[in-house]
Design brief:
The protein is α+β, with helices and mostly antiparallel strands. The chain has one domain. The protein has three helices and five strands. Strands 1, 2, 3, 4 and 5 form a five-stranded mixed β-sheet that branches. It is globular and about 50 Å long. It starts with a strand and ends in a 6-residue tail after the last helix.
Length: 123
């Protein structure tokens, strides 16, 4: 049995479906664990791994310093459908402006409380 996973930003309530986690290929040979990929609603096809990586990197940059979790799809069964926005169109998401852009100074201010959570705050 395999499960579909979603990467979820709890702060923005946005999710990226990663596809099913699997470790066997079509011939039932062992392969390193990976995801089957995002299925784009524009054409119904799964993105190739390289394109999925581009989409994942974009999602991580967009939600840097936010609380992210990788959850199985069935974790959303009791969540109202309008509570989380699922990314459905890869091209549109990738072409949108990245806000704020990395390096705008925000990261330093927000990173300090995170360091404190790990007990490594400057004294």
């Amino acid at each position: 049995m395999s499960y579909t996973y979603c990467l979820v930003c709890f702060e923005c309530r946005e999710a990226l479906t990663m596809g099913k986690a699997y470790c066997l290929d079509e011939q039932m040979r062992s392969v390193p664990w990976t995801f089957s990929g995002f299925r784009d609603v524009a054409d119904g096809q799964r993105l190739p791994q390289s394109r999925l990586m581009t989409l994942l990197v974009r999602f991580l940059l967009e939600h840097r310093l936010h609380e992210l979790r990788l959850l199985p799809e069935d974790a959303f069964e009791s969540v109202p459908t309008d509570a989380v926005e699922f990314i459905e169109d890869a091209d549109r998401y990738l072409k949108a402006a990245l806000t704020p852009e990395p390096g705008d100074g925000e990261e330093t201010a927000l990173a300090r409380p995170i360091a404190e959570r790990f007990g490594v705050a400057d004294e």
